[in-house]
Amino acid sequence: MDLAWLEPVMLAGVRMVAFIVIAPPFSYNAFPARIKAMLALGLAVAVSPAVTAGYRPMDTGGFFGALVLEVVVGVVLGFLVFVVFAAVQSAGSLIDLFSGFQMAQAFDPQSMVNGAQFTRLFQMSALALMFSSDAYQLILTGLTRSFDSIPLGGGLAMAEPAAAAVQAVTGMFLSAVQIAGPLLVVLFLADVGLGLLNRVAPALNAFALGFPLKILLTLTLGSVVFLALPRIISSLTQEALSTMMEVM
């Protein structure tokens, strides 16, 4: 087999695997590792005409060094996408925390998510929406475009990915607050109102009424936030693509 074709395809496959293992929605643990490897191999073969053009075979040391660099590139790009979409799960965690559902948290071994009801609901909904829409295709498009700006074995200047990661983490927290913000404000005002009611009429035991009231408010307003998830996922997909392009 021609090494001038095999080597770049292997390097591209390593970058693909490193990205798919970390970046949503492909990183979901319910997907077998064999399927992820086959997907990465198929994508590497698909981009082979672009990555093999002008490629020069390396010696053994240079090839293994290029493999390490491709792992780093794939991990960095996948982490940036992961951080952007973590805003949805973080919004669910904030809702669970302020509504009192955090006491019922559990660990999901498939998604590797440790959270309560809204955390897992938002995470699974985001996963389903990414596959039902064209979000996953756009993410793969951004990954394939990385070969145009980051050549095989070229590596990354870590200053730009570090700055992009800091910006992505900051944006993740802001997005989580924006998603869950209206519901958090209502729950906070409910706590304030119950506290004032308890001071005015202690015999009513307002805090005993607080649990069913907060559950009612959370389920009612949480459904409004849930209905906005498709638009939120679309916006986060564009943000993830722009974040990837910043480091290329």
From TrEMBL:
Keyword terms of this UniProt record: Cell membrane, Cell projection, Cilium, Flagellum, Membrane, Transmembrane, Transmembrane helix
Topological type in the membrane: Multi-pass membrane protein
UniProt keyword annotation of Cell membrane present: yes
Record has GTP-binding as a keyword: no
InterPro entries: T3SS_IM_R
Ranges annotated as spanning the membrane: 12-31, 37-55, 67-88, 164-189, 209-229
Gene Ontology biological-process entries: protein targeting
Locations listed in the record: Cell membrane
GO cellular component annotations of the record: plasma membrane
Main location: membrane
Signal sequence range: none
Record-stated family: Belongs to the FliR/MopE/SpaR family.
Annotated protein name in UniProt: Flagellar biosynthetic protein FliR
Originating species: Arthrobacter crystallopoietes BAB-32
